[in-house]
Amino acid sequence: RMNNVRTNVPKALLNFGFSGARMVVAALSSFIVSVIIARSLGAQEMGTYSYVVWVAGTVAALSSLGLPDAVGKYVAEHKGSGNDALAAKIARTIVATQILAAGVISLIGAGVWSALARHHLTLVLLALATVLPAALQQTLLALLEGMQRFDLQVVATLGGSILQIAIVASFAMRHASIQGFLLAKFLSAAAPAGFTFFLCRTMMSSRAATAEHNFSPEISKRIFGFSLSVYGLWLLNLIVCDKSELFFLRIFQSPAELAFYSIAFALTARLATAGDSISYVLFPMFVTRYSQNGVDGLREVYQRSMRYIQMLMVPVCLWAMPLTPRLVVLAYGGQYAGVASVLQVLLGTMLFTVTMTVSSNVIYTMDRQLSLLRYMVLVAVLNILLDLLFVPRYGALGAAYANGLSQAFAACGLIVILRRALPGGFPVFASLKIYLAAAVSVAP
Prior knowledge:
By secondary structure, this protein is an all-alpha fold. The chain contains 16 helices and no strands. Helix 3 packs across helix 8 and helix 13 crosses helix 15. The longest helix has about 70 residues. It is globular, with a radius of gyration of 21 Å. The N terminus is likely disordered.
């Protein structure tokens, strides 16, 4: 066992490096694309564009059905036990289901949205065209995660980022309009999805007879139950952790306020991916460690992971808060100065939420997601009430407060649930030391 641990340590470190590199590439390309579009459209049209993209992203999330998490979990589980044929069969089945689900839900979304926005039919169709490739890309990246091929994730993300920047830049020079950038978004989503599918093709091939023999109804039932519960959490996360505030800003505020909140949220979301890059590597490790060593093995790797993520993310959030006003104006221009205060509130929120992805991975590993699902219903209701209270009065800043308070409440509740499921798991005293040290470091 000790030899296996020593062998796996360099591989784990290499995977962390690949995952971190992928997140840096994705965050950098997203930031560049955001600056290009924001400067090309202006605050008013950027608000309209952000809202349309958000609706399309929500439809893509609805079409996920919890399948990305399922393919990551069960491919890692059976790949780790040496059953490659069954892992490939599960991958094929889930990817095919994802394509079908995304196609059907896109058509339904097109019918409903077109009826509600008849005068913007072109925008609707262009936006919804991105749903299928976006959902497929998410599932394929999760498949690579389950297979622990983080090197291929970097290749797929780097290729997609280069294409995205090139496509958006060319449209900015020739077709700098909302319709033009929506078409650019579709092209820059379809090409990476096709490239990632090409990289994954060998992982979905196996000896058919062996795979069919091993693919029992019990496994199908487990995958279905897991996907359904995770999907419920995804739906609630659309309210609590996603940009649901855009819906209320669309009703009560100007398009410029939509743009301010959308840009600030996107920046903090990309910053959060630094911690998520660690979490994505950890999930298949959690599954493997739990299946091999039980609760004690899972507790050990979870505590160590929490300390590393907090040491990485907490100082970054605190240090970034006083720097954001000048950096925002430098990157986006003076017309987006209103983004700064919104961004500072969301950075404060991240001090509570940096642990959520890793803690959720532990809940998923132990199949205790139903307890989290029940709690998130309460958090979603709280989020909607706070949106109604703050957004009409304070615009984008109020949306940030509503989102921040809801996510902080969710993060605290998740820790309580985790301490019950994994007693002694959350490193309370180590966390307090890290937060105190980070606060002292930023004081000057």
